[in-house]
Amino acid sequence: MPEPKTIPTPLADDIDELKLDPLDAHDDKFDPEDEYRPEPVADPGPPAWMDGSLRIGIHTSITGSYLNALEAARKLGCNALQIFSASPRMWQGGPSRIPETDAAAFRARRTELGLGPLVIHANYLINLAGTQPMLRTRSIQAFQDELIRAVSLGADFLVVHPGARGESQIDAAIANIVDSIKQATRRVPLGKLRILIENTAGMGTAVGSRLQEVAAIVRGLSLLGAGVCLDTAHLFAAGYDISSEAGLESTIAQIDQSIGLDNVYVWHVNDSKIPLGGKVDRHENIGEGKIKAAAFGRILQHPKLGASVTTGLPGRAFILETPIEEPGDDRKNVAKLWELSGIDGPAVEKGFTMLTSALKKKRAAHRKEAAKSAKATAKKIQDKKKKG
Question: Minimal CA–CA distance to 146: which of 63, 100, 87, 199?
């Protein structure tokens, strides 16, 4: 018995050519093969954290386990977070790859907690603007390792400092940064991960203290879809007066004209120990520095910076990098941001802090030992000079 003939469904562009009525172009009879055809994969929608709600987080520690960072964010009343994926002050800060079992557990727990976005901050030693061959090679490799770990953990953003240009001219340094990032991303499928360039305070020859410099880097990385992370303390130290109402409006206008507000996905929210234009990067607790609490209230509630569907950018995150000198400083800064935003944040675990009394003592002992070592090194150098 001959098999029944199946009439193929023509594409819309073929209907006129076949002289068929569109309504007649579909065969509604049962086809036995339909039972074995997989359902088409649905297009993934936006992540849950892009629901238009305000996203506030803090940099949490991965000490002991990546999962600990998630639990700390939850206990502190955050709905977003930032982490390091390895030690930020060592070239070999850990393995370049994360075991898939650990990464999968992290991704699953993050989904359960509804935390997002997840921001990863790249190693501080990376200098994408560097021209010295060894430094440049190590920086590109280290940044590629950061990309691989970020993708593995399911991060949404990877923030990196542009680097210092040394004796290079600014245009050459920007070209170097763009090329370094392009080299690092080769053969690394980024998926949903977006690279963010962070502005700087202007210390030494650091690139990125001017908004135009950050904008030029992002333009050079347009094919990668790179964006920007703006740090409030860095902006202020670089001379952008975000502490006053008029100064904030002026700064927002400059951001929009140079970078474009839609390209700013993350704000690092830090008060500044340094006066306006001081060009030194020193973070302070919210409301205790030169920027003042009222300014952060204006930032968090500004219609162009929040999560409004019509004027803001849903999913934009405000991440604290404030110092934790005393137990509870972290919890107080998170609570302060929610208070200044005018919105009730998630529940907080009473008394929780990332800085326990025991850890504070350990940190003090470490600093004392480091100071002693630095003093001894300085004395050796001085003695050597005298002998020379």
Answer: 87
Distance between CA 56 and CA 77 in Å, rounded?
A: 9
What contacts 372, CB < 8 A, 6 or more positions away? none
Q: Where are the beta strands (DSSP E) in the chain?
A: 55-59, 80-83, 118-121, 157-160, 194-198, 227-231, 264-269, 271-272, 283-284, 317-320
Q: Which residue type sits at 306?
A: G
Query: How far is residue 340 from each of residues 215, 276, 316, 327, 331, measured CA to CA in Å?
Result: 29, 22, 17, 22, 14
* Contacts for 85 with CB less than 8 Å, ≥ 6 apart: 62, 94, 98, 120, 146, 149, 150, 153, 155
| Beta-carbon-side half-sphere exposure of residue 132 (alpha carbons within 13 Å) | 11
* pLDDT value for 40: 65
With contact defined as beta carbons under 8 Å apart, do 62 and 45 qualify?
A: no
Give the angle subtended at the CA of 268 by the CAs of 239 and 199, to the nearest 5°: 45
CA 272 to chain centre: 20
Look at phi and psi of residue 221 and say left if phi exceeds 0, alpha if psi is from -120 to 50, else beta. alpha
Note the pTM of the prediction, 2 decimals.
0.85
- Please classify residue 240 by burial: count the beta carbons closer than 10 Å to its beta carbon, then call 0-12 exposed, 13-18 middle and 19+ buried: buried
Residue with the two structure tokens 């629901």: 51
Compute the distance between CA of residue 97 and CA of residue 99 in angstroms, rounded to an integer: 6
For the chain, the first-to-last Cα distance in angstroms comes to: 104
**Domain spans, the chain:** 51-365
pLDDT for 22: 41
Q: Are strands 317-320 and 264-269 parallel, antiparallel or unpaired?
A: parallel
pLDDT value of position 24: 44
Residue 164 sits at φ, ψ, to 5 deg, of: -110, 140
Dmax (CA) of the chain: 106
Contact 198, 231 (CB under 8 A): yes
Q: Which positions of the chain have pLDDT values less than 50?
A: 1-26
- CA nearest neighbour of 180 among 157, 199, 203, 164: 164
Distance of alpha carbon 140 from alpha carbon 240, whole angstroms: 31
Cβ neighbours of residue 380 under 8 Å, at least 6 residues apart? none
CATH class of 51-365: alpha beta
